[in-house]
């Protein structure tokens, strides 16, 4: 709810310190927020209409190649024209992007969205089998990808290649190549501007979020949801002269929404690393005078561990802020980082794919001194803390499951009404699955997770997916997968396995068995053999019992 709405005489009284309203047991964001005056705007039109004085939109960290804001919008217009008139892309069609980070992902993103088509992305580390499952669910009309990654796609899909070089297409590629992004960006528009009208309720994106009890789900976001995210980003990032260094993957919600969309509206420059490398990142900070880094906690820990070498080799004097998200950051890691890099501030944040960047964040030096918190509620959000057992709505400094409501939150899951109803109730509250409390000053603290996702270096790993693969092994009777704490990665998957009688299958054999079937970040890295998997009377695995048992099995 926007501040302007809450100021009316009919609004309930809200504690200005905590943001809590006793009359409806709801917390309200303390940050100012307003939605665009024209509610019918699609997100691309909203972004392109924002006034700014920025010149350079994107820089390729490896080559130094730059894309200005004017060239960006010319490219968007040309590519959209080709997609519409030559390939026949229409409103509602799904377009897949399978690509490592690139300064051209924003071109593809805005071209697709401007036509009312739906953008979906896939993790470049996923196997061909994992990508095929996502394609079977989302049914994309077209895919943007590189020659190397095209080999992971099924032969039936039409492909536009995004490689920057002019090599002739390999006829053995195995997919139907219908165009080249580079050629599309050179073509003059046809002048035929008649396109279907796009409005805020239309689906804009469908990003896949891992689940704990089954396959990943397509999270549906409307143009209105994304516009709310961009408006929020503008409201909290008042300095438009920042130079961001994007190290996070742009197939992920944060990388895509923040660095392909919101920074464009802000008029800031984004330096894009094609793939993460710690020393390439540091060299890019020095070369391009980056002021803000976006990191997952394991990268921040790596910066601490190699601090002496990094500071001796690179000039980081331009760097002012590190924004950290994707997984909780410990107080110890924060303190150690500030000791090593005393002139750099750490701003933490909390969000979900389903919330489109909404959740909580730290946005000032003063707020960052409150260690252990994810920050204040994002602008425009309402929150409730709910007892997961009784459903009772809790108050200040009381612990329960965090529920969120606001304009950026997802419409639901693609073709999955059951999961949508389980996650979003009839009043529009999104059940996050995170156990939290909000203190007297409105700061959100994350205590635990109701969900059982494993967070490996910021990537989500669903235990159920690995358990199904383990149970397909001929020598396994039962199995369960849990998160195991790790200083570098945050967590990694550990398996408890019940072998069949007379089986001598080893830990290494099972690790290799899983490694061949999943992306590298999903690999099981430790196996413990056990007589039986602890379960409830209804058959649900008691993962907490296994987590408590884990140290004794090392």
Structure commentary:
This protein is α/β, with parallel strands linked by helices and 554 residues long. It has a domain at 454-553: ANL, C-terminal domain (GMP Synthetase, Chain A, domain 3, 2-Layer Sandwich), CATH 3.30.300.30. It contains 18 helices and 28 strands. The strands form five sheets. It has a 15-stranded mixed sheet with strand order 1-2-19-20-22-23-18-17-16-15-14-12-13-3-4, with helices on both faces. Strands 6-5-7-8-9 form a five-stranded parallel sheet. It has a three-stranded antiparallel sheet with strand order 10-11-21. The protein is globular, with a radius of gyration of 24 Å. 46% of the residues are buried.
Characteristic terms for this protein:
single chain, 554 residues, alpha/beta, GMP Synthetase, Chain A, domain 3, 29% helix, disordered N terminus, ATP binding, ligase activity, ANL_N_sf
């Amino acid at each position: 709810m926007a501040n302007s709405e809450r100021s009316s005489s009919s609004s309930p009284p809200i504690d200005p310190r905590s943001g809590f309203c006793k009359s409806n047991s709801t917390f309200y964001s303390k940050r100012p927020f307003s939605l665009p005056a024209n509610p019918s705007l699609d997100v691309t039109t909203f972004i392109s209409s924002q006034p700014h004085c920025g010149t350079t939109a994107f820089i390729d960290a490896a080559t130094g190649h730059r894309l200005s804001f004017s060239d960006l919008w010319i490219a968007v217009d040309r590519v959209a024209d080709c997609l519409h008139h030559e390939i026949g892309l229409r409103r509602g069609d799904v377009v897949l992007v399978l690509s490592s980070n690139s300064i051209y992902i924003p071109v593809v993103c805005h071209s697709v969205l401007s036509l009312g088509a739906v953008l979906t992305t896939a993790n470049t580390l996923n196997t061909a089998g994992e990508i095929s499952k996502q394609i079977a669910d989302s049914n994309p009309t077209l895919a943007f990808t590189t020659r190397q990654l095209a080999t992971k796609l099924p032969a039936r899909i039409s492909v536009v290649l995004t490689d920057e070089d002019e090599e002739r297409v390999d006829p053995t590629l195995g997919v139907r190549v219908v165009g080249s992004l580079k050629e599309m960006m050179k073509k003059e528009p046809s002048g035929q501007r008649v396109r279907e009208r796009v409005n805020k309720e239309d689906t804009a994106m469908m990003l896949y979020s891992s689940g704990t009890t089954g396959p990943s789900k397509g999270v549906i976001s409307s143009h209105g949801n994304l516009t709310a995210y961009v408006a929020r980003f503008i409201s909290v990032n008042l300095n438009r002269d920042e130079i961001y260094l994007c190290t996070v993957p742009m197939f992920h919600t944060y990388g895509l929404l923040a660095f392909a969309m919101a920074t464009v509206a802000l008029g800031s420059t984004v330096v894009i690393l094609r793939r993460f490398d710690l020393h390439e990142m540091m060299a890019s900070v020095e070369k391009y005078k980056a002021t803000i880094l976006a990191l997952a906690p394991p990268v921040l820990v790596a910066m601490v561990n190699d601090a002496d070498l990094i500071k001796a080799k690179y000039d980081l004097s331009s760097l002012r802020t590190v924004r950290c998200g994707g997984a909780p950051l410990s107080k110890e890691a924060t303190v150690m980082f500030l000791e090593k890099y005393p002139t750099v501030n750490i701003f933490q944040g909390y969000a979900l794919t389903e919330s489109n960047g909404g959740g909580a964040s730290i946005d000032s030096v003063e707020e960052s001194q409150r260690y252990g918190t994810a920050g204040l509620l994002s602008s425009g959000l309402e929150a409730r803390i709910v007892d997961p057992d009784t459903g009772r709505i809790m108050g200040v400094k009381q612990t329960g499951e965090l529920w969120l409501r606001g304009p950026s939150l997802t419409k639901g899951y693609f073709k999955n009404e059951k999961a949508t109803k389980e996650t979003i109730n009839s009043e529009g509250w999104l059940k996050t699955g995170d156990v939290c409390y909000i203190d007297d000053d409105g700061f959100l603290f994350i205590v635990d997770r109701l969900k059982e996702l494993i967070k490996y270096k910021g990537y989500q790993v669903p235990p159920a997916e690995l358990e199904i693969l383990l149970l397909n092994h001929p020598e396994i009777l039962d199995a369960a997968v849990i998160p195991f704490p790790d200083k570098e990665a945050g967590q990694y998957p550990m398996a408890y396995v019940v072998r069949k009688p007379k089986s001598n299958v080893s830990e290494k054999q099972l690790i290799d068995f899983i490694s061949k079937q999943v992306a590298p970040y999903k690999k099981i890295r430790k196996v413990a053999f056990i007589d039986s998997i602890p379960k409830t009377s209804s058959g649900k695995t008691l993962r907490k019992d296994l987590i408590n048992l884990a140290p004794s099995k090392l």
